[in-house]
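Support request, please re-run this one:
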Amino acid sequence: MPTLKDIRVRIKGVKSTQQVTKAMKMVAAAKLRKAQERAVMARPYAAKLGEMLGSLSTKVDTSATPLLADRAETSKVLVVLVTSDRGLCGAFNTNIIKLAQRTIHEEFASAHAAGNVQMICAGTRGFDFFRKRGYNILKGYPAVFQNLDFSTAREIAETASSMYVKGEVDRVIVVYNEFKSVIAPNLKAEQLLPIKSEGPVQEGGDYIYEPSPEAIIEELVPKHLNTQVWRMMLESNAAEQAARMTAMDSATENAKELLRTLNISYNRARQAAITKELSEIVGGADALSN
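Re-run finished. Output below.
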């Protein structure tokens, strides 16, 4: 049975931990507001680029544009994984890593068995996990979210598009957390290449394109890829801060409940100690009177 001193020491430790988790929750909440704003602001531009490509793709022969041309077989795959740099964010990293493993082992099982699955890992957690397990990591970007910059997204997009054009990969998949709400992140394995022309076709008449639909597509495709990768990284960053805020809030509440239990145990132990002392005093007085 723990002594009063043991319980006091534990109460002090839990209070210190509670202060830390409460502070981390406040920091994560402040970062979430900024990250959410950046993610939401990037969505309309990325969506409009997709719509424009969808409309223009109906005017040209997509097979003549390498990044729009789909391939019959998928024997070589590039998986871009976006995780966080730090922990203390609940199951954020665990869930996205599991989705990446499931995507590799189930959707691209034959390519993985042949050793034709390569990875680009943005974020320390995913990079460390797959590196230790012997996966073929083409590039790693550890600590990328310490100073998140558009140049990183552009570099990833350029690497993926160059490999696709050269025939080194047949498909590029990005696995990331899309920010949906604070309590419900959306795990996604989204195809980056070949580009899916799913945008709505503009109606209301024909248009004159200058210089030509083909030239415009050639200009838009790199911008589209850069923007999509950047949007995915912003979404993941916002989802990470939301997960960390939720995890720290739960930890603070758990510490509060633990303190309540410890205080009850402390009061019971103190009452038992006082009762024991009183019994000893009464017993000693009775012995002296006899």
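The chain has a mean pLDDT of 88. The first helix runs from residue 4 to 56.
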